[in-house]
Every structure is written in C-alpha cells, then in structure tokens.
Amino acid sequence: MLEISNNVTLAEWEIELNAIRSQGSGGQRVNKVATAIHLRFDIKRSSLPSIYKERLLALSDSRITSDGIIIIKSQSHRTQEMNRQDALERLKALILLAMVVQKKRKATKPTRGSVKRRLETKANRKSVKQARQKVKF
C-alpha cells in the first residue's frame, strides 16, 4: 500500500511492478540479474479521487501516455528493492506534483520611476553610439 496523503492511499493491485534487466555496462552478473524496476500505473482504473485523476491526466509529462498510464523505470540502484522503493517514491512525487496549485499571475505595470530610468539609459546609449560614429572616419 502506497500512502499519498493522510486520506489518499493506493492499493498494491493498482501498481504493476516488473523486474527487468538494467541498461548499460555492467560486471559479470549483468546478464543474470534483473535489478531494474518497470512501474506501470493506470490513472483511469485507479481508486484515486476524481480531482487527482483529472490533474494527472492534464499534466504534460513524458512519463504519462496518451492512454493515461504512468510508466516509470528505475535502474539507478544496485538492488531490486532499492529500485522498487525509488520507483514508488517517484510515483508518489508525480501524484503530489499534480496537486500543487499554481498561483495566478497578477499583471502589473512598471512604475513611473523604472520607466524613466529605462528611457534615460536608452538615451545615454544612443548618445554614446552617435559620439563613436562621429569619431570614425
């Protein structure tokens, strides 16, 4: 059971974990041991509240397929158990990321003083540029 928050949990049957062989170079046991973990989580079939499902499906993340399935591959650790924990933590982080509400941006105007300073620096640059052109032959 994966606990997302105080009142939201995921059952083990909702998360599909498969052990696969890790990519990359390795030692003598590289072709014998499957230490990497391939996690699949179907958002639409899950027991998550509907607001969680909507926000997860709205995310533009490369780990979420068009069918609404989250695919996470973990192979950074040497043991299968550590990769399993890493994959579950990354799933939890993704779900929690979807629930973060972005603050609305307030459109503001620049202050009168900042506009004045910007225009003065532009005028100074223009006069310096003209002075340089007069010196050239």
Describe the structure.
The chain is of the alpha+beta class and 137 residues long. The chain has 3 helices and 5 strands, in the order ββββαβαα. The protein has helices at 50-58, 80-98, 112-135, and strands at residues 2-3, 9-10, 15-20, 36-42, 69-74. It has a 3-stranded antiparallel sheet, covered by helices on one side. Strands 1-2 form a two-stranded antiparallel sheet. A hairpin with a 5-residue loop joins β1 (2-3) and β2 (9-10). The longest helix has 24 residues, at 112-135. The chain is elongated, with a radius of gyration of 27 Å. The termini are far apart. The model has no long low-confidence stretch (mean pLDDT 88).
Q: How many separate helices? A: 3
Spatial strand arrangement across the major sheet: 3-4-5
**Which range best describes the helical content: under 10%, 10-25%, 25-40%, 40-55%, 55-70% or over 70%?**
25-40%
Q: Uncertain spans, ≥5 residues at pLDDT below 50?
A: none
Number of strands: 5
Q: How many whole angstroms does the radius of gyration measure?
A: 27 Å
The main β sheet shows up as: 3 strands, antiparallel
Q: What is the H/E string?
A: EEEEHEHH
- Percent strand equals 15-25%
Judging from the principal axes of the Cα atoms, what is the shape?
A: elongated
Structural class comes to: alpha+beta
**Mean pLDDT across every amino acid position:** 88
**Termini separation:** 80 Å
